[in-house]
Amino acid sequence: MSDFWKPEFSASQPRPGMPQPSDEDVVKALVEIQNASSAPAPSADSPIHVVAEPSSTKWVVVAAALAMIAAAGYVGRQQLQQLQQLAKLAGPRVTKRTSAPSMNGPSQVAAEQLLQRLAFGDAAAADEVLAHSSEWTGKAQRTPKSEQLVTAALNSPDLHIRQAALQAEIVLDGVTLDEAGVTYVKSVLGNPQQRTWALWMLGALANRGIDTDHNAKIIETYLADPDVTVRAASVDALAMVATDETVPMMLDRFRNDPSPVVQERAACGLAQSGMYTQTQRMTASKNLVDWLDDSLLTQQQQGWAVQALGDISGQHFGNDVAAWRRWIDSNR
């Protein structure tokens, strides 16, 4: 089955006959994004910060606004102003801040220009990031501008764009795309203040094919941590790994973790914010449908299951279990 989230048209080339939004439409979309965002502003003196995960509604608003802005053809300064609004809706990830001064050299400028194209859905830019971002190490780093651009790309409905953004995030944080990078991140994992960043980074490295199985096993050991923040970060990290083997782990945390925070993260990671393919999400859907009328699940969990199924399928059957089962049967 094709990826449900794969766009049917290029953001830079509006579909023929598609109504073009007015400036007022774009502004309204951005206002909706700003109103939807509840993420606090990062602290300048904090070594790391956790950016709140967007809800399903926020995800849809981000995707729609990106398409509207791209269709409107905004470029340059105005384009960046739009992205500054979009960047307020980061995905479930952790930022590691360094004390190094911002880089303004040619490599930094070139990287941010490429990330700007990536944020607006340019598939060619994604290919370039995946092919050449490892060359940025030591020459480009995270800045407020790159943070905004990467955030927008990580919220893209296109998996290829998100994969490129994930790799850019790794490199801009100074982590190399090799075993040495994994070794460094594991050394940071022992620091409680940086553990959430390290878990997310291990997941990101695993997604890019670097020590995937080993990283997933390390992350798995933190799923039973007594600290709910660490367990939530572990679920987020597994959603970055996104292998077939991690799907049952995510389902288990959705069903059995005692914290609603972790339950929701697991559902969202399977449905939209993780790096899973549509085929993997369909695998998870079979369990979610079976649990819709399970009396052992809370009403809140059943609501999240319905929301996840809607995100995966594009269908709106609500609590109609029979309709969801017919949908599953028709997609076997």
Question: What's the story with the biggest beta sheet?
Answer: 2 strands, antiparallel
Broad shape: globular
The total count of strands amounts to 2
Mean pLDDT over the residues: 78
Can you tell me the CATH superfamily of the largest domain?
A: Leucine-rich Repeat Variant
The SS-based structural class is mainly alpha
Poorly predicted runs: 1-76, 78-93, 97-101
CATH architecture of the largest domain, by name, is: Alpha Horseshoe
Helix content range? 55-70%
- What is the CATH top level name of the largest domain? Mainly Alpha
What's the CATH topology name of the largest domain? Leucine-rich Repeat Variant
Radius of gyration: 19 Å
Strand content: under 5%
Beginning-to-end CA distance, first to last residue: 10 Å
What is the number of domains? 2
Write out the strand line-up for the largest beta sheet, numbering strands in chain order. 1-2
Topology, pairings included?
Layout lengths: L22 H14 L11 E4 L4 H17 L3 H11 L6 E4 L9 H14 L3 H10 L11 H11 L4 H14 L6 H11 L5 H13 L4 H10 L6 H14 L4 H11 L3 H14 L4 H13 L8 H15 L7 H10 L2
Antiparallel strand pairs: 1-2
Helix pairs in contact: 1-2, 4-5, 4-6, 5-7, 6-7, 7-9, 8-9, 9-10, 9-11, 10-11, 11-12, 11-13, 12-13, 13-15, 14-15, 14-16
Describe the model.
With 332 residues, this protein is mostly helical. The chain has two domains: 150 residues, no CATH class; 152 residues, Leucine-rich Repeat Variant. 61% of the residues lie in helices and 2% in strands. It has 16 helices and two strands. A two-stranded antiparallel sheet has the order 1-2. Helix 13 runs parallel beside helix 15. The relative contact order is 0.10. The N terminus is likely disordered.
